[in-house]
Design brief:
By secondary structure, this protein is α+β, with helices and mostly antiparallel strands. It has 2 domains: about 5-120, 2-Layer Sandwich (D-amino Acid Aminotransferase, Chain A, domain 1); about 135-290, Alpha-Beta Barrel (D-amino Acid Aminotransferase, Chain A, domain 2), CATH 3.20.10.10. The protein has 7 helices and 17 strands. It has helices spanning about 25-30, 50-65, 75-85, 160-170, 215-225, 240-245, 275-290; strands spanning about 5-10, 10-15, 35, 40-45, 45-50, 95-100, 115-120, 135-145, 175-180, 185-190, 195-200, 200-205, 230-235, 245-250, 255-265, 265, 300. About 45% of the residues are buried.
């Protein structure tokens, strides 16, 4: 961590240790906030934020879905994110924009409650300790939320109670992560990651109809794969495909591209990260480090 760290909050920088809220804050009590996860990477030209505009747009869309008035524009948010990384003098880091109801009155209604927006940037490495070797997963007993319960396409804090229950269950059972199924029994996603399978040389990933969060890293992998001539299927995925696929991996801002080498104690392929997984992981690494001109537009330099 830098010696002196700052949080952007409501248009001003405050000391990291002083970015506090009341214990009765609505979004702390009821999970009514929204957030984003974004990474900046060290490149030959300095720090660069990966797909900043897309992340900022999803943040604004999340606010719209839950009916939250942010009080700032997407452009304002993008500048706040850039200025936070600059202020903290960071290169590679994880960036967390967060909007919440900053009101200490008890009650469920959010009508008339003040909204605060904060941006935090912190040094961050691998999300999974075993990322390079691959991780083990368990199909969760908890089902993925759907649009009749909560809005899966909003990156809303309360949605992640579902993710936390699944992830903790898996880890207590000795696995690295969970895989959630939709209410219809199809493969949905990980607690904080999208999932891809490799079947006979083509990529398969659950479609929007499986109640997934439309991941930006997921979208990046699809676009890169198609440009490389790989076939990509976005469709409903049966649970048994998890056990019969040749390769599998998670994608996400925190997870980046993480190989899955076993599911429910069954080896995926030969139990090691597969060749297509490795090829895509290497390609993504080149892109985020600014070493691939084809995707230079995905980087915003700080």
């Amino acid at each position: 961590m830098p010696d002196k760290q700052y949080v952007w909050m409501d248009g001003e920088f405050v000391d990291f240790s002083k970015a506090n809220v009341h214990v009765l804050t609505h979004s702390l009590q009821y999970g009514s906030g929204i957030f984003e996860g974004i990474r900046a990477y060290e490149t030959g030209k300095g720090a660069a934020i990966f797909r900043l505009k897309e992340h900022a747009k999803r943040f604004v869309n999340s606010a719209r879905i839950v009916g939250m008035d942010l009080g700032i524009s997407q452009k304002d948010l993008e500048e706040a994110i850039l200025s936070t990384v600059r202020k903290n003098g960071l290169m590679g880091c994880y960036i967390r924009p967060f909007a919440f109801y900053n009101d200490a009155n008890i009650g469920l209604s959010t009508i008339g409650k003040r909204v605060s927006v904060a941006v935090v940037a912190v040094p961050f490495g691998n999300y999974f300790a075993n990322k390079e070797k691959g991780i083990s997963c368990k199909v969760s007993s908890w089902q993925r939320i759907n649009s009749s319960v909560l809005p899966p396409e909003a990156k809303a804090s309360g949605n992640y109670s579902n993710s936390i229950l699944a992830s903790v269950e898996a880890k207590r059972a000795g696995f690295d992560e969970a895989i959630l199924l939709s209410q219809s029994g199809y493969v949905a996603e990980g607690p904080g990651e999208n999932i891809f399978l490799v079947e006979d040389g083509k990529l398969v990933t659950p479609s929007k109809e499986a109640d997934i969060l439309i991941g930006i890293t997921r979208d990046s992998v699809i676009k890169i794969s198609e440009s490389m001539g790989l076939e990509v299927e976005e469709r409903m995925v049966h649970r048994e495909e998890l056990y019969a696929c040749d390769e599998a991996f998670f994608t996400g801002t925190a997870a980046e591209l993480t190989p899955i080498t076993s599911i429910d104690l069954r080896k995926v392929g030969n139990g090691k990260p597969g060749p297509l997984t490795k090829m895509l992981s290497d390609k993504i690494s080149m892109v985020v480090q600014g070493k691939d001109r084809e995707y230079a537009q995905w980087l915003t330099y700080v």
